[in-house]
Design brief:
Layout (H helix, E strand, L loop, with lengths): L4 E4 L2 E4 L2 E4 L1 H7 L5 H9 L11 H6 L6 H16 L1 H8 L5 E2 H4 L2 H5 L7 H5 L6 H15 L4 H13 L8 H7 L3 E2 L6 E3 L3 H5 L1 H13 L4 E3 L8 H5 L3 H17 L4 E4 L2 H15 L7 E3 H11 L3 E2 L8 E4 L12 H10 L29 H17 L4 E4 L2 H12 L6 E4 H8 E2 L1
Parallel strand pairs: 5-7, 6-7, 6-8, 8-9, 11-12, 12-13
Antiparallel strand pairs: 1-2, 2-3, 3-4, 10-14
């Protein structure tokens, strides 16, 4: 930019310097806990985290090493929240160069937030989280991707990241009770699930088979995690609070979700980000089914789907969400000719798919290349049908099939459950 000065969202870019004010720093770090501060301050930048990141394995660029993003975010944190950093900022010894900052957008979205880098890191540094913090800064400074901002804007203005406006009609069409007070569960769908009527129908059928009293809210058609993942924490928090308000209004006992990322957001990250303690339990459908199975309320048998089958675990459900045993046991019982990975669902040895980045059109080319790692791994197992537990994963692997990168089918787990549950 030469000597041109540019101001936006708490940033001032002048010459080769980027100056950041306290207001933006406060916004960026308003939800940090002790573990997050530990991660920022103790990353050794050894680079070991990069070896489980499909984006770095594709590009081999320093800015795609997960720890690079942590280092960049730590610069801002230290300039406002550590004694040395404050002094260094006043003495102009610590700054972010214009050249560095202009690489942030590219680097921040070369990350699926899968958490494998944390599993690999000797210090367990949450480098995936610093990628989200980097997106938060891009959102507030006006440098975010256009399609990312559209997801946030749709969530804020329309209540749904994908702009779906007829949720109530769609829910009623497949048999859901809408706004029914006193039900046991409030089901919170993900936007991608709503767009897939076959999946939505299978979910309604599963609840019916298990004789579970469930309702949906006409006011909630998105858990809010898309807004969070693109850096608009305030919008995501407002949706999370809305979910809790609807649960209270409808007098339900539990919140249930069928999407891996929805579970992680509603159970863990949403409460942390908003500072609101969960008043009722949040369950993933696999947990509910597994408990019913153990109690003897239902039986599980092999589903009538194409085999042999394998699985692509949702990192948000397992690695970040902590749900492992229900998923594995259900697959053993319902998936025909199941080829089970040797590693646990949370293992860093299992590659991530490209997940929500499939919705960021500006990343289309690099996303396609990064997909190859998970596709090659799944193909080596020799299955003809891969089961997924997150509709973002279904979208990613489906796009791989469309791009002729894969020659297997992809089946959402609710299809398996609908056909495998016996009363």
């Amino acid at each position: 930019m030469g000597e041109e000065e540019f101001k936006c969202g708490g940033f001032k870019v002048k010459g080769n310097r980027v100056e950041i004010n306290r207001n933006l720093a406060s916004r960026t770090f308003d939800e940090l806990g002790p573990a997050d501060v530990y991660g920022l301050e103790n990353c050794m930048r050894c680079g070991i985290c990069s070896y489980t990141c499909p984006f770095w394995l594709v590009t081999k660029r320093p800015i795609d090493v997960p720890a690079w993003r942590t280092y960049e975010i730590n610069k801002i944190y230290s300039m406002f929240y550590t004694g040395y950093g404050i002094v260094a900022r006043y003495l102009r010894l610590r700054r972010i160069s214009n050249k560095e900052f202009m690489r942030w957008t590219d680097s921040a979205y070369n990350c699926t937030a899968c958490g494998a880098c944390t599993e690999t890191s000797p210090m367990e540094i949450p480098n995936w989280y610093t990628a989200i913090l980097m997106r938060r800064i891009l959102h507030y400074s006006g440098f975010n991707y256009e399609t990312a901002e559209k997801l946030a804007k749709n969530t804020k203005e329309l209540g749904n990241a994908l702009g779906i406006s007829n949720w109530k009609e769609m829910a009623s069409k497949v048999g859901f009770q809408v706004d029914k007070k006193g039900s046991e569960y409030l089901y919170i769908p993900s936007p991608l699930e709503i767009q897939d009527m076959e999946i939505l129908q299978s979910i309604a059928s599963i609840f019916s088979k298990m004789k579970i009293s469930v309702t949906v809210s006409s006011a909630v058609s998105d858990p809010g995690y898309y807004a969070y993942l693109v850096g608009d924490f305030e919008t995501a928090r407002s949706v999370f609070v809305k979910v809790l308000e609807e649960a209270k209004r409808l007098e339900v006992k539990k919140i249930i979700t069928t999407d891996g990322t929805s579970y992680f957001w509603l159970r863990w990250q949403g409460p942390k980000s908003s500072g609101v303690k969960l008043p009722i339990p949040v369950e993933h459908l696999t947990q509910t089914v597994y408990e019913k199975y153990k109690q003897g309320s239902i039986k599980l048998s092999k589903a009538d789907v194409k085999g042999p089958t394998s699985v692509h675990y949702s990192e948000f459900l397992s690695r970040l969400g902590g749900v492992e045993e229900p998923v594995r046991e259900i697959l053993r019982l319902t998936a025909p000719q199941f080829i089970e990975p040797r590693d646990s669902p949370s293992s860093h040895k299992l590659y991530t798919c490209t997940h929500h980045l499939e919705l960021i059109s500006e990343k289309k080319e690099i996303v396609k290349r990064a997909r190859e790692y998970v596709i090659n791994q799944l193909s080596r197992w020799g299955s003809k049908n891969v089961i997924v537990f997150d509709h973002n994963c279904k979208l990613s692997l489906g796009n791989a099939i469309a791009d002729k990168q894969a020659n297997f089918d992809v089946t959402y787990f609710t299809i398996i459950l609908e056909r495998g549950i016996k009363i």
